[in-house]
Amino acid sequence: MRLRIADIGVDTPLMGLGLASDGTVQVPPVAAHSPAGWYSGSPAPGQLGPSVILGHVTVGRYGDGVFLRLSRLRPGARVVVGLQDGVATTFTVDAVRTVTKDRFPTQQVYGNTDRPELRLITCGGPRTGDGYRDNVIVFASLTAVAPAT
Fold first, then answer.
1. Do the beta carbons of residue 58 and residue 126 sit within 8 Å?
2. Which of 10, 83, 91, 107 is within CB 3.0–4.6 Å of 5 for a Cys-Cys bond?
3. CA distances (Å), 57 to each of 23, 49, 131, 142, in order?
4. Distance of alpha carbon 75 from the chain centroid
5. Which residues form the signal peptide (predicted)?
């Protein structure tokens, strides 16, 4: 799978992510050129429900992360996920929200929906020691499915 967001210059492969030992969703490794990752416990992009993709805003001593500019997306922006079967799913951004991590909207991100949707998640807001205070969440809806070009 591959994620492309032209408006913010993202073009990354997607690695598979599962659950960490504490029951939270895994995140991609903090490493140079770390890709974004699709949470395999969520629907595949284009399937009914919210597909969840996570990426870093920064990757420690390695610099900028793949989702450095995620908070700059605006409603109407296009997000394309190329699937392994050669299909390209296109999503249109509905909303971009920044929320404090202690108020993460779990149900709105992972809860069932009546249509195919996409959630893109990264850290944001001010730095707090070794991390960030907030999460940036992009909410998008499926608007097209076509053979990949």
1. no
2. 10
3. 22, 25, 10, 24
4. 15
5. none
| Nearby residues of 22 by Cβ (< 8 Å), 6 or more positions away | none
Rounded Cα distance between 16 and 36, Å, is: 9
pTM (predicted TM-score): 0.94
Q: What tens-digit pLDDT sequence spans the chain (149 residues)?
A: 999 999 999 999 999 999 999 988 999 998 888 999 999 999 999 999 999 999 999 887 888 999 999 999 999 999 999 988 889 999 999 999 999 999 999 999 999 999 999 999 999 988 887 789 999 999 999 999 998 66
CATH value at residue 26 = 2.40.260.10
Q: Could you give the number of structural domains in the chain?
A: 1
The amino acid occupying position 141 is: S
- Which range of residues forms the domain containing residue 81? 2-147
d(CA 25, CA 28): 10
Contact status, residue 78 vs residue 3, Cβ threshold 8 Å: no
Structure tokens at 69: 């500019």
DSSP 58: B
